[in-house]
Amino acid sequence: MTSRPTRFFALVPAAGIGERSGAGMPKQYVFIAGQPMLAHTVAALAAVPRITQTLVVLSPADDRFEAALPGCKAWVARAGGASRAETVLGGLAELRSRGATDGDWVLVHDAARCLLRPEWVDALIDACADDAVGGLLAQPVADTLKAGDAQGRVTATVDRRDKWAAQTPQMFRLGLVERALQAMGAAATDEASAVEALGLAPQLVRASMANFKVTWPEDFALAERLLTAASVPDPAR
Ligand SMILES: Nc1ccn([C@@H]2O[C@H](COP(=O)(O)OP(=O)(O)OP(=O)(O)O)[C@@H](O)[C@H]2O)c(=O)n1
Ligand SMILES: C[C@](O)(CO)[C@H](O)COP(=O)(O)O
Predict the structure, then answer these.
(1) What is the mean pLDDT of residues 62-79?
(2) pLDDT class of 6 with cuts at 50, 70, 90
(3) pLDDT of 80-93, one tens digit each?
(4) What is the distance in A from the centroid of ligand 2 to the CA of 189?
(5) For the domain with range 8-231, which CATH number is right: 3.30.70.260, 3.90.550.10, 3.40.225.10, 3.40.50.920?
(6) CA of 3 to the centre of ligand 1 (A)
């Protein structure tokens, strides 16, 4: 019997409302460097040859996608839920309905991390494709870490030596990540925490601070500067 080649699917949860961004609209549709944020995100994933297909998971009420990303080749599912974890679970079910199976890898990547670079995705795949668990892009914490109370007063300085800031993509086999998210529910703020709750240890793969999540109003201008700089041709070439 011949075994099927390993497949890598990207799943982009894009059903959030972007409340913290203050944009007054879902932030994934805010234009940055000439395109909606979501278009940059999908383009970065499409530039990774090992990714078989990308699935974008929208809110059932989304009426912006087709006009914002005309001609987009990604699969689309209006299967988003009230939490990011529910949206990802809806996307996993959609992947199954399109033929994906337990052993396929799924790279879950936030629509809001629009500065993703294909080489970071390749580094993640290289590090995890032979791993029994999977892993995630992350960045060692470089600042001194404080715990604070509701009044904004420091309550403790936290040892940062073993702390990493989790990013996306987060890459796990479909069967494992689905079981993990079903068990943890909406409390899972990322896929890795759900997998950890099963007693497993995902691989941390260092990426870049530039792979930040556009979250606050000021993040749009920073993303604009970085994306614009990245698209300026190198005068030396
Ligand atoms: N119910 C949800 C909530 C979030 N997301 C997605 O998960 C990613 C990370 O979430 P976050 O940055 O928190 O986005 P929002 O939930 O839109 O932002 P906010 O929490 O400020 O409302 C985003 O791409 C967002 O669209 C989703 O698909 N479904
Ligand atoms: C998945 C994530 O981006 C990893 O840092 C993060 O947990 C998403 O959190 P949010 O509160 O949904 O933005």
Answers:
(1) 97
(2) confident
(3) 999 999 999 999 99
(4) 6
(5) 3.90.550.10
(6) 37
Strand 75-77 relative to strand 154-158, pairing: unpaired
Ligand 1 proximity of 221 Cβ (cutoff 6 Å): no
Query: Which tokens sit at 9?
Result: 């699917």
Q: Indicate left, alpha or beta for 144 from its phi (over 0: left) and psi (-120 to 50: alpha).
A: beta
Q: How far apart are CA 237 and CA 234, in angstroms?
A: 6
97-100 long-range Cβ contacts below 8 angstroms, 24+ apart: 98/55, 100/7, 100/9, 100/174
Q: What is the pLDDT of residues 34-49, one digit of tens each?
A: 999 999 999 999 999 9
Q: Which atom of ligand 2 is nearest to the CA of 191?
A: 1
| Distance in angstroms (rounded) separating the CA atoms of residues 192 and 134 | 9
State the ligand closest to the CA atom of 38. Answer: 1
Candidate of 110, 141, 172 to mutate for ligand 2, largest count of ligand atoms within 8 Å of Cβ: 110
148-167, pLDDT tens digit by residue?
A: 999 999 999 999 999 999 99
Distance from residue 3's CA to the centre of ligand 2 (Å) = 35
CA nearest to 109, candidates 21, 172, 32 = 172
Is the Cβ atom of 37 under 6 angstroms away from ligand 1? no
User: What is the ipTM metric for this complex?
Assistant: 0.98
